[in-house]
């Protein structure tokens, strides 16, 4: 899905769109599905927009330039903050999903005064005890990527998370979403994944974040990986609040965008 606006940030162009009116809420997509938060952005605007959503494609993904590697989590967080600069926003509510939630976390730790609230949809936190088991499950996907089969790696990822009806679910992310994800699989695994596995939640920097934090987890998610991730968030952010999405797993942003929007809208507007 093409985003018609671009912001020049650190030598690259980030594609973005803004919809709705109200408090600014910046959405950070996960891994290789740059259009994955389209349904959530739409749900946040129904029945009437209570927040102004800002959705963008991360560097090198789909409509944005900067298709190079490697790229650090810090660099991606700087892109996020640079987009706020271009939009002349001193601060905003920020929501991140999966690997995008890690980028949102890094932005919040590096510039806490710019975060009005932080919503994290199942961040990939590799310091939790069950990461080793979780990563073992990714081995077949990484093997496909290393063999140059980007389509196979993308399909295996989505099938593993969403089951046999994964194609219908991905289609809700917009026209051509699967093809774009296949294209961006190389960017994710070559440019981003190594940095993602090395990033840790810095306890000292975490103390500087006073903004409200919301942990969103699907109640059918990977156990115990995301449960441990939530516990880690509570350890570093004692004020962290929780929202559980019934019947959803790690594909919650496509399975239950309405339920997530309801939780996020109430949280962000009260922050």
Structural class: alpha/beta
Report Rg: 17 Å
Mean pLDDT: 93
CATH class: Alpha Beta
Tell me the CATH topology.
Answer: Rossmann fold
What is the H-and-E element order? EEEHEHEHEHHHHHEHEHH
Whole-number total of structural domains: 1
Number of helices: 11
Helical fraction equals: 40-55%
Characterize the structure shown.
There is one protein chain. With 271 residues, the protein is an alpha/beta fold. α1 packs across α11 and α4 (131-146) packs antiparallel against α5. Strands 1-2-4-3-5-6-7-8 form an eight-stranded mixed beta sheet, with helices on both faces. β5 (92-97), α3 (99-110) and β6 (115-121) form a beta-alpha-beta unit. The two termini are 31 Å apart. It has a single domain (5-270), classed as Alpha/Beta hydrolase fold, catalytic domain (Rossmann fold, 3-Layer(aba) Sandwich), CATH 3.40.50.1820. The radius of gyration is 17 Å and the shape is globular. The chain has helices at 38-44, 73-86, 99-110, 131-146, 150-162, 166-171, 177-198, 203-206, 225-236, 252-255, 257-270, and strands at 5-9, 12-19, 23-28, 51-56, 92-97, 115-121, 213-218, 241-245. 46% of the residues lie in helices and 18% in strands. It is built from eleven helices and eight strands. It comes from Actinacidiphila cocklensis. GO terms for molecular function: triacylglycerol lipase activity. Residues 24-257 form the AB hydrolase-1 domain. Pfam families: Abhydrolase_1. InterPro entries: AB_hydrolase, AB_hydrolase_1, AB_hydrolase_fold.
